[in-house]
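Task: fold both queries, return tokens.
Query 1:
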Amino acid sequence: MKKVLFTFLIGLFALAVQAQDAKGPVITFAENTYEFGDIHQGDVVEHTFKFTNTGDAPLVIINVSTTCGCTAPKWPKEPIAAGEEGEIIVKFNSRGKRGVQNKPITIQSNAKSPTRISITTNVLVDNN
């Protein structure tokens, strides 16, 4: 009987921890990576990453950072309510770039941990 009660209490504790972890805002992207394919040096391309706040509290995006000035993000400044959708627009300028490019974008918000999305492309150089 003690063993059954102990097992039950451990299971109940595990459920409580899972429920506690699920509280708060959660940013869930429809896609985490976007591939532009081949583009030509000098092209400017952009993609819209759509996300949903799948948590139970408003999501506030504090900052969206990139590793290069060639990548410019635009994000909502107002809170995203639980269950609502939002989008982050990422623009990439290929001027001076060549070959395969992988650009990570880090989203800092009031969610539990930072989230990362990325864009990739292959920049072709015209031989004139």
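Query 1 returned. Query 2:
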Amino acid sequence: MLRLLREATGLIAFVRTVQTGSFSAAARSLGATPSSISKSISRLERLLGVHLFRRSTRLLAMTQEGEAFYDKIMPLLEQIDSSAETVQSYRAPAGHLRASLPSELGRMILEPIFTEFVPMYPEISLSVGMTDRHVDLLRENYDVAFRVGQVEQAGLMCKTLSHLDMTLVASPSFLRKHGDIESLGQLKNIPFARYVADGKPYPIGFVDGGSILPSGRIDLDSATAIRDAALSGVGAAHLIKRTVQDDLDRGLLVELLPHVKLQTVPFQAVHASGRLPSFRLQLFTDFIATLMRSSARE
């Protein structure tokens, strides 16, 4: 047992390589070099007397022995890692957090993060990415990603923080050109600035379970770009209502079919499966959850 504990570096390198899928990605997340990761794992393999990975120029896959070893060692390392978290609540929370926020909704969240969370926890530092792209938490070394919509990627733990109301909008200039929209049939025949993820357009869902796949005038991968397209009159748009409420109040956008109830979408905090959230991450997630709930009541 003591021999294995002396290879703690190899154990960590092995687990992180499994999680990230490559020596290079594991090295980036650990602040090491790919060669040092490979050498650490090789020393561990010699100690165990088995190959943990099948290596080739194009493939890095676990052997049967590697899978069995990972299943045993991963929970133990997590328990060791989480033991520090049990005492963190007795001191001021500190450390670094790397978070990903969706573009347009994130724009609304940033101000209270700056004015409330940062002053409240001066020992916590933040790196914040703003994108609607579904980041790879392990490969890109994110502690948490806040995402709109369902998360279908395996190996992730999700916590729903709120459900967001959606709306259909268009600019006054768009309506002057295409006429007032008074039925779902008309909705199917007008051009949209569509949200597209992984090459697939996002459907418009209704509370009754039905849906419409809008016809595309222009396809975009961020809510900010879709809002801009709607404001310019390029197309109608299906957006989170709170992100365009100010535009609606100012008359820059008009709500289409306000009597039709649209399906809400979940707003979720996502972190890698097998990683217990740190105390600072719990504080940050709880802050965002409280913020979303309070803004929903306004």
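Both queries returned. Flag for query 2: Residues 90-161+266-297 form a domain with the D-Maltodextrin-Binding Protein; domain 2 fold (CATH 3.40.190.10).
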